[in-house]
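Why does residue order matter? Because the sequence determines the fold. Keep that principle in mind as you read this record.
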Amino acid sequence: MVVGIQTINSKKIYQRRNRMTRPTKEDRKKYDIDFAGDLKFGLGMEDEVIAMFKDKKIEVKSEKGMWQRTGNIAVEYESWGKPSGINATESDYWFHNLCINGDIYATLVFKTETLRKIVDSLDFIKTVKGGDHNASKMYLVNIKKLFSSDVIKAYKGVAEMQQENKSDEEC
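Structure:
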């Protein structure tokens, strides 16, 4: 199934790339458009999405309806006293479906390591129990907070520190 999705997306992207309209030279000058740079970036990001489905492991979690009332998603981290969910997955990507009446309304997609960094960088996090026999523990992560500037800054700070540590180790 995943291969089918990847193949369909590849064909659509290839077809769209071949019939793209490009701004005229006058438009590029008038509006200071870096079409070549924007196109290169956009095509690169399309390739990133295609790569998510090729030889990668994905974890898919779905929120049924509580997210609509609370504005939170639940990220499991422990079950029956053992690491689970975000603390145990070996997936490359974490897909988090937001469902309404059984239909997928939207899907949040994270590199799993990125979601771990985000959860670790949150200044406030609520933990709840749920699942079968309330044996699982989950972080409640506010959806708006995920995309707030303070979380993004904290994430960038963590990423920069890790990059500095990598550089120090290489020396």
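The first strand starts at residue 58 and ends at 63.
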